[in-house]
């Protein structure tokens, strides 16, 4: 059955792979499923046809026959549960891998989203210079704890899993701020993710669309 | 096998049910699983024994035999996949319910967490009065979109599911700000959640611990 995802017609990051379709492309490549991409403009994202697929007017969405999903965590989990390659067979290890997926989106990503907001949306506000270090420190607190847990391991819990895919994708968003490089173990962890052939294919696919266009944000 | 969760020795909310153990208690009650609670102090949460269970030093955690989990989304999903009552049988409906779990924690909760930070941690900052309306508007944008999608339905996708459990739990955190009541459909949705016998039992259990102690926050 054909899988179709949506992605930005023109990603605000200019092809750095930080838009959320990259996570889904990566998962699709890891499990070896071909997919098609429908590109949507910022205007189209807020129109009824797209809102029917994604009530919050964002990308990516995922269509497979009459199944329609949104939320990268949900899409990646759906793929991981149906195809080999992203979740261990052992039930306990599987539950722990899913725990890392939720940790990525609910513990690590919220302060990172706040940092992105502070650095972009509130960049010109009078409080920006004084407040930004507070926001950065909240990101550092979480990354410090994560780095301790990862230690010298390659991945968060045994073999590479959907938990690592989501975590590395979320951590990538801290690279433009320079904070990722303050945590060498995490920077190396993200680099291990980027070195996976599936990630390289996913990155190249989004770059082919966005890399030649100047960033909009 | 005995299930043991952790909860605050003294919840900062003084028993309003906003601490995250309530979500897990609710799920346990919905699927009819008995559980024990180990209470942890703020100091103990940052000590090695607890950090081994929860690398970010928070509550709740979940232990069942030699399985140890954290992240409420992961714990609720684990329970929902192993016991009847929180996920539909149809594979597509199940994937959509899980989508709502991720929407709760990755789309709706991040701006709510930012609002909680603005209202509490940054309350005394010089920018607080000018910035707070911006943060509130970001919450309103998401709640407005969610309200449109919910429409006049009782639950987000057919019967009550783990997606509704997570979404109602997350929305509850907007009640102290007054924003929840600006969206009557969502306020009624949360009230439907609170009226479920399983929620009532979960709320009562945490209130028995926290309700008699003054809030700390």
Features of the shown structure:
homodimer; 217 residues; alpha+beta; Glutaredoxin; Glutathione S-transferase Yfyf (Class Pi), Chain A, domain 2; 2 domains; four-stranded mixed β-sheet; 9 helices; globular
Number of strands of chain A: 4
Order of helix and strand elements from N to C terminus of chain A = EHEHHEEHHHHHH
Can you tell me the number of structural domains of chain A? 2
What is the CATH architecture term of the largest domain in chain A? Up-down Bundle
Note the gap between the termini of chain A. 36 Å
Structural class of chain A: alpha+beta
Indicate the percent of residues in helices of chain A.
55-70%
Strand order, sheet with most strands of chain A: 2-1-3-4
What portion of residues of chain A belong to β-strands?
Answer: 5-15%
C-alpha-based Rg of chain A, rounded: 17 Å
Q: Given the C-alpha coordinates, what overall shape of chain A results?
A: globular
The largest interface is: A-B, 44 and 44 residues
Overall mean pLDDT score of chain A?
96
**What is the CATH class name of the largest domain in chain A?**
Mainly Alpha
Query: How many helices of chain A in DSSP terms?
Result: 9
Named CATH topology of the largest domain in chain A: Glutathione S-transferase Yfyf (Class Pi), Chain A, domain 2
Assembly annotation: homodimer
Low-confidence stretches of chain A: none
Largest sheet of chain A: 4 strands, mixed
Pfam family, one (chains A, B): GST_N
Protein name (chains A, B): Glutathione S-transferase family protein
Domain GST C-terminal (chains A, B): 90-217
InterPro entries (chains A, B): Glutathione-S-Trfase_C-like, Glutathione-S-Trfase_C_sf, Glutathione_S-Trfase, Glutathione_S-Trfase_N, Thioredoxin-like_sf
